[in-house]
């Protein structure tokens, strides 16, 4: 289960079940419901992966299993589209340096929400605790986007302004948000563990000044039961 804002910048919240799975072959090929189909390598200190998956989406109405809100009426739907991603992490004496770059392909170049866009996440993480009560990990992170990313998710075009309750807003490339995450995993048996995750983000000026943003501090919490075999 997860409880999160209805969309990035919303002060409304939604609770929904989260189902997922991941299959990894001995050769590093994986299929993951979060990232997609890809190949990865995990060494003692360095790990990296490349994948093809689907980008996020947002609707301008309330739906229990979809990001979006009726407050966005007139903004149009941001459709999911094919996305290419690369990710790398390096363990430097207990501090994990990570970077993930994702590029969503163009869905419709003539549509406000259909342009190709790029997103970058940089992170620093560490293990805080490991013992009989499970393990606790923490990370700080920053998110960045190109002009199309910021305009798609936080901008308001002239046409969108005439159809919605928002004034026109031209977003530019830059910092989207900065935040932290905290996860606690507790083993139940050899194959099963329960994990909780708290993620907090503060929308930076490029995104935070958008008229669709009702609250710049965004927090989400989730709990999941994981089974491996």
Automatic annotation (TrEMBL):
It comes from the Bacteria. InterPro entries: MipA. One of its GO terms (cellular component) is cell outer membrane. It is found in: Cell outer membrane. Its main location: membrane. Residues 55-74 are annotated as: Disordered. Pfam families: MipA. Keywords: Cell outer membrane, Membrane, Signal. PANTHER family: MLTA-INTERACTING PROTEIN-RELATED (PTHR38776). Belongs to the MipA/OmpV family. This is MltA-interacting protein MipA. It comes from Pseudomonas fluorescens.
